[in-house]
Queue: 3 jobs
Job 1
Amino acid sequence: MNDLYHPRSVVIKKTVIENEARDIKTFELVFLDQEEREKFEFSCGQFAMLSVAGAGESPIGIASSPLDDEYLHFTVKRYPTGVVTTALHSLEEGSEIGVRGPYGNFYPLKAMEDKNIVIVGGGFAFTTLRSTIRYLLHDKNRSRFKDITVLYGARTPGELIYKSELKQWEERDDVNMYVTVDRGEEDWKGRVGLVPNILSEVAPSSENSIALVCGPPIMLKYTMPPLLDLGFSPERIITSLERRMSCGIGKCGRCNIGSKYICKDGPVFTYKELRELPEAAV
Amino acid sequence: MRKGDRLKEKIIKKEQIGKWLEKLGKDYEIWAPVKKNGLVSFYPIQSAKEIYFDFLNSKKTPKDLFFPQSEVLLSFPKEEVGKEVKTILQKPRIIFAIRPCDAKSLALLDQVFDSEDYQDPYYVERREGILLVGLACTHPQQSCFCTSVGGGPFEKAHLDLVMADLGDGKYFVEALTQLGEGLMQRDDSLQDVQEKDREKLAKTKEEAEEKVKSKLVTKGLEKKLDKIFDSPLWDRVHQRCLGCGICTYLCSTCHCFALLDEKDKARVKRIRNWDSCMFPEFTVEASGHNPRISNRERMRQRVMHKFNYFVERYGETACVGCGRCIQSCPVNIDIREIIEEIRNE
Amino acid sequence: MQESEKELREVAKKLLLEKKVDLIIGYEEGTLPLRTRPIFIREADETKKLVWNFRCENNLCFYLKMAKERVGIVAKGCDIRSIIGLIKERQIKRENIFIIGVPCSGIIDRKKIEDILEGRELLEGIESDSQIILKGEGLEEKVDKDKLVHASCKSCKYRNPVLYDTLIGKEVSQGEGEEYSDVEEFASKSDNERWAYFNDEASRCIRCYACRNVCPACYCPQCFVDQSLPTWFGRTLHPSDTLIFHIIRTLHIAGRCVDCGACSRVCPMNIELRMLNKKAEKDVKELYHYEAGISLEELPPMATFKMDDPQEFIK
Ligand code: SF4
Ligand code: SF4
Ligand code: SF4
Ligand code: SF4
Ligand code: SF4
């Protein structure tokens, strides 16, 4: 109880630059004390506060699967005015940072069992979906879920993240992968088109299905109508929201939309819940 | 609250208070209203002479004795990741002459910082180590509206002991908890209550309550607010607002904060500072996007948080009617008017 | 007072009816004794709410910084000097502003009233031309208005507007003029004494930033206090942090501050900000012979360089 704000020590084991602009990096973190990893029980969709001593803390979605039990992955975008994200990006492998969490609610993995899963992601907002995909596709889990369709898009090929994993998933026959970009480039041989359009084209069945959708607000806005058209009811469309946070535990007062704290009552909401929230972007 | 305690009532003469506090001062650090630079605030005192008994209410609320405006949560050498600072009150404390509304605000803050699923160690420790000695208000101000939000100038809830100035050089003292009783028993020169004291008390109370002239209907306000999130009302009420932090920093119940790091050559401190929903930076995301883009959204957030969101979450209004925001807003934005407008909308 | 208020309402009404402006920014009565407050009027009918008296303490320029339409603004001498500053520094366009100038013989300082009240509550304030009657429980006190006038107003040399589109009422006599005795007296104190004074003042600051928000010379889209990369100074309430805020702000507004006193008046903690600002004003005047907000042409010294600028500080 007394360590409410006390981060646990982790070491940056590995970093991977994810995009062409080099401002998105995935950090592989290992707890100094493996026992702490065991205590760090989380589920797909949750986030944690990462801290760099002297710079502060920042809420970041967990990108690894709960079943990746030796490490945690966080994919962090560096912003020019982001103190913590800039500090994180400047750290070398082997540096020690802090993790506090996990926080927030998670995707309804239980309710997703025996159902078809449609995952729609856009740009950088693919991190907790990646956690979910890794979880669903794990040998131990795959049989518990029916068809899995993943549609992921970015503005340009250079902005797609987790490229090697995307390729691996494309090669599997137990997941329908669709990767698309808004604007192709010369050597881009994949799909070109906006996520909502490709979604209508692919037209996954809504029969016994649940959709998880994450992306920039504008993508969310245009993805909801085709999903509804396909027959997904608002309570079976699940999404995750972002807001500035400081405490991560529903106390500091800034991340609320209406009476709901994104860090505590969210970040995962059904589209039905979302529509009932005031000032929500979607 | 510690229920079922025996009631204890006494009379203390004004000139006896110094002696009594001296005795209490052996075991407690006593904080009381003191006037400095033309402002009344709570300070630790050595002698009752320093106390400004006739204060209307303090400029700042005593909430910062529980939830300081700036507090080091963790402090650690640079190479370590985070060590706890154990904040122990050096000595148990008494807040002497806290107003009923401010005592109530602590009960509201308890909901936030000392709930079933979350106990803020820093807050809880202070809350447990600090006794509340109330001073009933014999001079409520025009801007006071405690009686409209479940309080009153003679309200005793959440106090350990309450005092009321009977006006004839005597104070009526009532212990409300065992701890409060302990404080009272520390001085055996306190006198027994006579019937006429009781009559005096009733009369003073009635007079005080009459002085709370601002009457607002807050019942059902949360439901009304549910419906008017997008109302043009918000375009009107924020217009004058300067977007400063006065109304939130002086408010009894506001509790938003930010965590941040400060460092010097050797050490890093993780600090918790008050923050304000009236500041544009409050919600700016790292990407530069700000979901509450103007004073309109921020003013709405402030009002909604107090009169709708908090009610939904904890079942109570997050305003105790102390009127500080009304008194100190540099452009005279008056929460009473806003409430009225909402009701009429 | 009555007369000019009437005239003001008529002028404002006409401006709206003739569509010369879209919005009038002025003063109306507030909800507490002796308080007025800003009002925004778009309908001609509403102009009857306008008031003008020696309680109109707000500097309304704050609202010009965000106005997107043609605005008629009720402005006192110092407010007009702020407007000149804003025009010169290209924050607002002269053609979008209709200045309703009001000669002003000084506004009252509520903090001085509080001193008189000694903790008692003011229930009513009745004003006559030269006096205010303060009423409260067991209190009735007549006070000369002169005794209550704000320090900035006392010395003001620009009580009659230096720039306006229309003038309400008659010109008034100017204030005492150049008054640096406080600053000089303070400057004569020892380092330790001065340091102790500033520390004491700064220790009360709650960092509400009302002083900055209200200041017509403070309009940076992102103030240095809000910058995090880099972070210019600590975020705690320690006087070493709050003092840095005030010192840097003083330097930023040196040569641009018009001594409107708005910052001191909004401060909920009675912090005497004027001492710092006055000192900066005095230095700028002595070193560069410049006074802020007097002419539309001359640029503030910190924004220009002249060959004969004093340069002893460059070592
Ligand atoms: S004190 Fe007044 S001006 Fe300042 S933020 Fe609050 S309402 Fe706005
Ligand atoms: S909102 Fe105003 S009246 Fe209500 S508790 Fe806060 S400061 Fe007091
Ligand atoms: S609001 Fe009520 S309890 Fe608070 S100071 Fe005023 S009269 Fe006293
Ligand atoms: S610093 Fe103060 S006195 Fe000077 S212009 Fe700004 S608000 Fe007015
Ligand atoms: S208005 Fe006063 S308390 Fe607020 S920041 Fe300025 S000096 Fe500090």
Job 2
Amino acid sequence: MTAHSVQRPHALSIENLSLEFPTYAGAVKALDGVTIKVGNAEIVGLVGESGCGKSVSTMAATRLLPEGRYKITQGSIRLFGRDPMAMDEEELQQVRGKLVSTIFQEPMNALNPTIRIGQQLVSVIRRHEALGRKAAEAVAVNILADMLIPEPARIMQAYPFELSGGMRQRVLIAMAFSCNPGLIIADEPTTALDVTVQAAILRLIQGRARRTGTSVVFISHNIAVVSQICDRLYIMYAGRIVESGPTRAVLDRPQHPYTRALLRCLPERVRPKEPLESIPGTVPNLLDPPPGCFYRPRCPEADARCMEKPHSTALPGGQAVSCWQRAGHPSHPSSEVPS
Amino acid sequence: MKAAPLLSVENLTVRFPGATNWFGQVTSQVHAVNNVDLCVLPGESLGIVGESGCGKSTLVQAVIGLVRLTSGRVLVDGHDFAGANGTLKRDLRQKMQIVFQDPQSSLDPRLPVWRLITEPLHIRGGMPAAALRARAEELAVSVGLRSDQLDRLPHEFSGGQRQRIAIARALSTDPELLILDEPTSALDVSVQAQIINLLLKLQRELGLSYLFISHDVSLVRHFCDRVAVMYLGQIVETGPAEAVFDDPAHPYTRTLLASVPSLENSLPDVDASLTGELPNNRRLPAGCYYRERCRSAVPGCELPQALLAVPKANAESAPRHQARCCLHMPA
Ligand SMILES: Nc1ncnc2c1ncn2[C@@H]1O[C@H](COP(=O)(O)OP(=O)(O)OP(=O)(O)O)[C@@H](O)[C@H]1O
Ligand SMILES: Nc1ncnc2c1ncn2[C@@H]1O[C@H](COP(=O)(O)OP(=O)(O)OP(=O)(O)O)[C@@H](O)[C@H]1O
Ligand code: SF4
Ligand SMILES: [Mg+2]
Ligand SMILES: [Mg+2]
């Protein structure tokens, strides 16, 4: 296991990152000034509307976006203090898997359909650890068993199509765990799991962060799960971070109108079969985003100031919000507004 | 008199070859679905919940004919679907659409979104391109995509956006039964609400029926009229959604409900007995399938259990609430 010195840099530090995808119709501005910090042993949640840039942020950080098909227009990324954009292919291979493992959102895409599960796991393990085939197989079987996969020895022999959706997802988690990375990026890792297995897997992820100091970026739409596992949260909207802070603070005292609206959409709050609350309108077109706050067209609190881009305001207790209504009086830009 | 079911599944069993020997002979079987009976009435939604790997996806794939039935029958509108052929088969198949659990793999990467959405209509034939495009736009907007995204390719979308493309596509042919395998797990709660509201509206207005697989218990409770709880390829409890979720009778259902995450509770300590003896679908137990993990097991549980009505204090409130557990056998 890696030794953690006190001055170790952040596991992941994304600073003011803007990124776009050039397309025939113009540039899709997927990220606009995103700042995300993930400390050691910290579990950090990324939450936000479908398409807001959660996967793109983390894939940019691990250089998993299709090379040549995107452009970083400002900002910087550091993985354990190093710049992934400056790495050559060999260094990247070292970093991915050894330092950072990603549990991908769509398991079927991340597994090779023509290779048995065991072989895929063993090759990941052996790429990063000097183990013989037999020893690596034993490690793999153990990790599958940790993931509550029944008959792990048989599943080693199976092809991905022979597994259920949730079993495939657990194989990916097993792969991510197998090389003892310092940072795990988990992109919707438990969507296909029943709640009992999900709770057990979340415990494993949490235990790993606490015991070995592994950092975790946890992307999820399941706010209840996020509330149970994450230390801190970033709320994203249309390629920007709109709110961040300690999990309980953000969920108990949401400041941004988007965060508040999101929490109102949970199905528990309505009688069966009644329409659920949703946020009226749609996310802006990222080819041509509106001026000012991106949430303005849907925001019930918007006023004239919102035509300007809101800056991030730090609130007491570690929360930060980008919204004019929480930014204090415009003539005292430095004043902080307690909630 | 009840309406005739749109879909009924009778004693459905699906087995896969589990292992083969050197000669290619099957030496063990995977018992994915075991003697399942269920029905869906017109305008009704049936939810299926259960352990990961318990056979939910296999069951619905067998229903639409993507997986061979080992035994049992699937009746669509009263006609034997697996046995049908020619135009009858086509007509019956047209009544059903499915949104797969991993929709990514079912979207042709070379087709723009509007073509993907209207592919089933295009295959059916008889609609000019302009009409297809107009229909694609209408469907895309109804699932919360924007009309300016119609010409983009699937890889240019996020996971949740692709999921919505798959839902729009399934709706394109106006099916009578829509099978949804984890349809909203990739969506944020606002888009999820929008899609659920759309499905509820279609149900109210057009009498659409749904077979809805989800791990999200509160969503199933909100959306479904009835629910079936599966364990190891079997239905272990079924009934009106509120009866099953508010007053669960089967110990597995209770375990499941006890671990539903919520904003108020911290992560439960998953007790080893809940996950201890994992079910093995190659050797089915002789008695109750859940016995090895069940904390309420009593003598009698080693015998096969039938799905029987759960005795209720208020007998007429939920006559259709059934469980497969020896604790609920009538005395
Ligand atoms: N290769 C690409 N070309 C053009 N646009 C892209 C490309 N990849 C992603 N995008 C766009 O970038 C935005 C952010 O996508 P991303 O995958 O990060 O969303 P997400 O927050 O992970 O959403 P979800 O919760 O649905 O997975 C989306 O609007 C998407 O359409
Ligand atoms: N083609 C196949 N060959 C062999 N076994 C299979 C095949 N397809 C599924 N199985 C097995 O059948 C069982 C049921 O799988 P299924 O995909 O139906 O589960 P599920 O209930 O949908 O689970 P999840 O909630 O994880 O998606 C699993 O044990 C799986 O490994
Ligand atoms: S800045 Fe204005 S438009 Fe944006 S969220 Fe705040 S109030 Fe609403
Ligand atoms: Mg994503
Ligand atoms: Mg499934």
Job 3
Amino acid sequence: MIALIIRRLFQSFVVMLAVALVAFSLFRYVGDPVSQMVGQETSIADRERLREELGLNDPIIVQFSRFVLNSLQGKFGISFRLGRPVKELIAERLPATLELSLVAALFSLAVGIPMGVYTGLYPHRYLSKFFQAISLIGISLPTFLIGILLILIFGVILGWLPTFGRGEVVKLGWWSTGLLTVSGWKAIIMPAFTLGMFQLTLIMRLVRSEMMEVLRADFIKFARARGLSNRAINFGHALKNTLVPVITITGLQLGSIIAFAIITETVFQWPGMGLLFLQSIQFADIPVMSTYLILIAFFFVLINMIVDILYHIVDPRLRAEGAVV
Amino acid sequence: MARSLLEVERLGIEFNTRRGTLVAVDGISFEIEEGEVFGVVGESGAGKSLTGQAIIGLLEPPGRISSGRIYLNGKRIDQLPYEELRRIRGKKIGMIFQDPLTSLNPLYTIGKQLIETILTHLPLSHKEARQRALKLLTEVGIPAPDKRIDHYPHQFSGGMRQRVVIALALCADPSLVIADEPTTALDVSIQAQIIALLKRLCEEKGTAVMLITHDMGVIAEICDRVAVMYAGRLVEIGPVAQVVKFPQHPYSQGLMGSIPSLRRRVRRLTQIDGAMPRLNEIPPGCAFHPRCKHSFDRCHKERPKLVETSTTKVACWLYGN
Ligand SMILES: Nc1ncnc2c1ncn2[C@@H]1O[C@H](COP(=O)(O)OP(=O)(O)O)[C@@H](O)[C@H]1O
Ligand SMILES: [Mg+2]
């Protein structure tokens, strides 16, 4: 287990370094950093001095090392567009995105797994067919369309839920949470549903097919022949055997949820990183873009590592290497 | 008249398919006595496994019992509700499947699987169940059981896993064990050990065994009585000594001819020319007649019933009317 974590940490480090290189290249070579900082009227000499001060004349390897070191300390530079440190901007926006993603992921798991188990156990029941039909819709309708339809129905026509924003937030240190107020919960329902819908259908279909496959396995037949109760068989033996693929997909999807929050955040004007990123692109706000890139990569790497560790907890075959006696 | 442990009366099993109804098992009857080792032989596809599954009520749809009755200790069990039958499975009738590699849940220790099964059927505390599990593991010959009980299935070899499977099948002291080709998936070198273990344990506990196999060597070695199945029908049934040494039915004779007398266990049944008919093309009359050297007119038209001969019961027009 320890060896695994160390190996994974090393791999993660390499991946992050590669991402940092991309972010750095973006920073350094997309446009001229100096001309983006100063006005038209600045003289050539002033520009040259600024170059020197910023270290843009140093060897590339030195510049890259400095970039990495700065990033490690959270010094991501100053936003061109807003003129504020990127670190501050991200700290403001990160909680909104993470809360939205987490609620969406939990929603998709909490609803998707039971639906998958049900449709897997009773594939011929009407309710299962209904779930299947819903999941088709979830997979085929684009996110923004679902979002806009929800806004139209629940926001505009019925007026039950707010159509944009996070509602009231409460400060917990630097973290601002919307999960402690009623208006915050009201505001998160539609975006979380929209964002989680695709994952929900994915998880449901995955659990369903895994469940149907596992239920045909010999060890399930043997469990029945031993007279175990249906509950023990379905939930103890079958469901647990579907967990490995479910963990994989959920983990990967959590990464995508965070990344794809961009669209949902735009539709609902959700003040998260996705929205920030989109606005930065329009202004070629390179420091914000490269930081966003690094952060998303970091989340992916982190989630992957957690997924790997969970595998080892669930499946004993991965834990003990070899050891057939 | 004292009733047998298990009585199967005119059992029929059918599959409803799009192309019509297939009759996979066609009115077979037999009894198994307490403590008896009862062999069922026949080529692959004869309906042996289906018969076993029907007895414990685990036929998989579209398969279904279409006719007949099954009694356990004189009590009819083929029409019991699922929950009642579930309490019989494992408790009264144990089952051993062919492949020990896939019979155990890979995510649980063998101890957990044993204890779970024991607690399902017996009113014991968790601690007592663990004691019982340890004792069972010792009985089936797992070395260092107090250590091995907490191991996962993948940490055992095939032969060891089949021992665990046997422990699981016997863990609530059933009065009958149905063993469906328990050694087919194992190494030849281990097969004899497993069969010997099964025989010894069941003898000690007084458990009857229904041993399904296509290995005549195994049958000759441990069975008391044998039933020979062909295309879903019973063609001969009788004491093992008679069926093996003096088979009456031409099909049984063919099967017995396939045991080389010295190295018995190694061979399979292949020596009869031709193949068993598929379910949708079972010929009229005696199902075996296209492959039978002795067949005559009547065999093509009328289906023979089981009749008593001096040694066995046989369904063949060569014997009696
Ligand atoms: N689901 C099914 N649909 C149609 N036929 C089946 C099905 N399952 C089994 N059969 C048929 O039932 C017959 C008996 O099978 P089985 O009892 O497994 O034979 P065996 O004697 O080898 O154990 C076989 O011919 C098989 O093709
Ligand atoms: Mg079979």
